[in-house]
Design goal:
The chain has 243 residues and is α+β, with helices and mostly antiparallel strands. Helices cover 51% and strands 13% of the residues. Helix 4 packs antiparallel against helix 6. It starts with 7 loop residues before the first helix and ends with a strand.
Amino acid sequence: MADNNYNVDDDDSAGGGEWLATYGDLVTLLLCFFVLLYSMSTIDNQKFKKVIAAFNSMGIIGESGSIKPDTSQGDSLINLELNNEVEAEKQEEMEDIYKKVKELVDSNGLTENIDVEKVQEGVLLRFKDKALFDTGKADLRDDSKNTLQRFAVILRQYNKNIRIEGHTDNVPIKNSMFKSNWELSAARAISVVRYFTEELPEGERFDSKIFEVAGYGEYRPIAPNDSEQNRQKNRRIEVTILK
């Protein structure tokens, strides 16, 4: 007599669960594959942190680690172009100042006492002490005022800051007016500034705000103080027209 009690589970247990073995093998193979990939890679944590920090400093990566869209690239290019134009205009202006000042010095026979140079800060006028002052004094001579007035005509055409420095040689000075070279150099620089800001005719005077004044005494020589000729070079007033 046939057995009519048919059990569905009996059929599954007979082989229906074989797919689990195949699935398990697949998972195992995938795990081995990723372990193999990881073992082949080398990650230097310090280098990784440096790379992230570099991107962060450029604004590419935010604090959360996500990459930020660069919306400022167009603005940066525009600003760069504008800055280049401004720098080119400044350079052209300083070149114009240099040419006019140099022409004034050459055409008036002032080359023996006044040097004109292009420097990183702008245009430098170097006056030997005898071009402006008598020995040991800080009062401008009358003829030197005429020279400074000619330069003022040129400088008034430009809106530039001006630095004026006083320098001496290393021979000590001690008289009723000055007890040291510091005081003499500073007083001479101030005399030049005072001429531009107070002694020029009204309407031609400069705004005091554009001037910087310094007295360096004997401590910034341009030649060794080992001869009278070199000491004379060190006794000077330097006027720098700043960019």
